[in-house]
Amino acid sequence: MLERFRRSLQRKEVDKVPVCSVTQTGTMELMEMTGTSWPKAFTDPKEMAALAMAGYEIAGLEGVRYPFSSPDIPQAFGCTYSSGTFNSPPHQLDFPCKELENVKDITIPDNLYESPGIQSMIETTDLLRKQIDDKGYELPLIAGILGPASFASCVAGVNNFLMWSVKDPDALQTLIDLGGEVCAEYANVLYDHGADSVVIIDSESGPDLFPPPLFEPMFLPVYRKMTKTMKGLNILHMCGDATTILEPIAKSGFMGVSLEEKVQMDYASHVIGNDICLIGNISAADDLLLRSPAFVKDAAKKCIEDGTRILAPGCGIAPHTPLANMKAFVAARDEYYRTDELSN
Fold this sequence. Notes:
Blueprint: H1 2-9, H2 28-34, H3 40-43, H4 45-57, E1 64-66, H5 72-76, E2 80-81, E3 92-94, H6 116-134, E4 141-146, H7 148-156, H8 158-167, H9 169-192, E5 197-201, H10 212-229, E6 233-238, H11 246-250, E7 256-259, H12 265-272, E8 277-282, H13 284-290, H14 293-306, E9 310-313, H15 323-343
Parallel strand pairs: 1-4, 4-5, 5-6, 6-7, 7-8, 8-9
Antiparallel strand pairs: 2-3
Helix pairs in contact: 4-6, 7-8, 7-9, 8-9, 9-10, 14-15
């Protein structure tokens, strides 16, 4: 499974596309079956590791993806968050960069890797790496962290993030550049502790929030610098409709891009499918959460037909998603290839 995942990101031939999630995988059923719970599993390494392993050991996803929320980097820079609840992740309460004059005060802390959220991620990575190796599982360990746009949006607040993109792009660029530096360095720490792949979650750079004409000048150089620095398999995750920026995304240096279902996979495959590994994009909020297992299978098979190289949800799996639908999602991939073999 690890080799198939790696080869897919490298756009090499595989026997069948991997089926996994590069976004959050914690559900209420998996928590009940593992004795874990939110909000403890957001920060407690043992609970986080146990719930992450359940995505493979119980649901059958071909990868172990963690964490289940990502406030770790912003918290280290002075952002505050709620603790989250039994069925919802933490949400941001406050941010440090309220005025333009505050931008100069945002610097990388000397004790960055001693901050509680980042320490929790490092400890969880160590635990998961050991468990995967001890059990002889050959599957990818996938970490998710916020990207430079998400960092800037958290540190400055969404309103400032949008306003400064027009009124003072230089100040915003300073935060974006800093975010890119921190994210690449943090990703390498996680690789060193055993993560195979790091997903950069950066939806705030996408057209649903940020002006599309500014994507290429403000983010592409940062992404290219990051991907040249990152030492392992790397993926960009983009929520929303990223259709208008697909071509620059393909030039970003990321090995793969995880797309929400708002992007038509067949179109993305036609436009950039030879340049980057397409990941996705069955609907997590609709198909996986609300539909029948049979519907999920049909939707998953269509994703494969439309050109996805890694079959995955288009966004984080909703906590109330039925386990039966997660298993149907995995089974659909196997059925697709069995049917293909019979037809040949």
